[in-house]
Amino acid sequence: MRDGDTLAKIAKMFDISENTILWANDLKKASDVKPGDTLTILPVSGIEHVVTKGETVASLAKKFGADPTDISDFNDLPDGASLTVGETIIIPDGIDSPPPVIPPKAKGNSSSSSTSSSSAGSVGSYERLIPGYGGESLPGYFIRPINGGVKTQGLHGYNAVDLGTPVGTPVMAAAEGTVIVARGSGYNGGYGKYIAINHSNGTQTVYGHLSEVYVTVGQHIDQGSIIGLSGNTGRSTGPHLHFEVRGAANPF
């Protein structure tokens, strides 16, 4: 820590959440960080964990509110791999304790050009992603997140479709809501740069493989607002938008 540094500045510099720094350094609040302190910085928002007897990827995902696929991908673990007692692994987007950081106030509904690496549940009381295996049909609730594009893959994964479109195509919010994930860099379990929005009816939408992220966590977004640009980041075999609807049927 240098004079003038703050937890927020350091988190932004390394593209991780503030809570990630607090947890990795066993700190309770941002004011505990002082000039001259040496901090442990993780490569991604989440927590570092030393494996104990009986723990598995699935049990750690449940314990820390993370995605088991993200844990395996980030730590290069094959499917069904056993964990070794004493080994240290990174749990992307894991939550170690009730977050002590106060969330930022929601910003306006314009599509800001700033980016953020905060993730669902990583700051304050923002919600995590819900399971994405479909649900009731909501005719007319969601608009198509891009103009044009061709569906290159039908329903798969967490209730997703892939819409083939050139890199740089404007991506719009499919419905009004609040941004809960805005990852402007990183692999992120295969999503690459991605955004997730929580909607007032309890559903969520996810926009993956983006080239640009224009919104921040906590920002209120109107339906149709441009939130980013399509891309080819993460686990992607070609330019397209990966679009998920969680908690309802995907109409596309």
Could you provide a short overview of the structure?
The chain is an alpha+beta fold and 252 residues long.
Which secondary-structure class do the elements indicate?
Answer: alpha+beta
CATH superfamily of the largest domain: Glucose Permease (Domain IIA)
Number of strands: 11
Total domain units: 2
CATH C-level of the largest domain: Mainly Beta
Mean pLDDT, to the nearest integer, reads: 80
Rg over CA atoms, rounded to whole Å, is 18 Å
CATH architecture of the largest domain: Distorted Sandwich
Helix content: 10-25%
Describe the structure.
- By secondary structure, the chain is of the alpha+beta class.
- It folds into two domains: 7-92, LysM domain (Membrane-bound Lytic Murein Transglycosylase D, Chain A); 102-252, Glucose Permease (Domain IIA), CATH 2.70.70.10.
- Helices cover 12% and strands 25% of the residues.
- The protein has helices at 7-14, 18-24, 57-64, 68-74; strands at 46-50, 88-92, 150-156, 160-164, 170-172, 177-183, 193-198, 204-213, 220-221, 226-230, 240-246.
- The strands form two sheets. Strands 3, 4, 5, 6, 7, 8, 9, 10 and 11 form a nine-stranded antiparallel sheet that branches. A two-stranded antiparallel sheet has the order 1-2.
- Strand 7 and strand 8 (204-213) form a beta hairpin.
SSE diagram, text form:
Layout: H1 7-14, H2 18-24, E1 46-50, H3 57-64, H4 68-74, E2 88-92, E3 150-156, E4 160-164, E5 170-172, E6 177-183, E7 193-198, E8 204-213, E9 220-221, E10 226-230, E11 240-246
Antiparallel strand pairs: 1-2, 3-4, 4-11, 5-10, 6-7, 6-9, 7-8, 8-10, 8-11
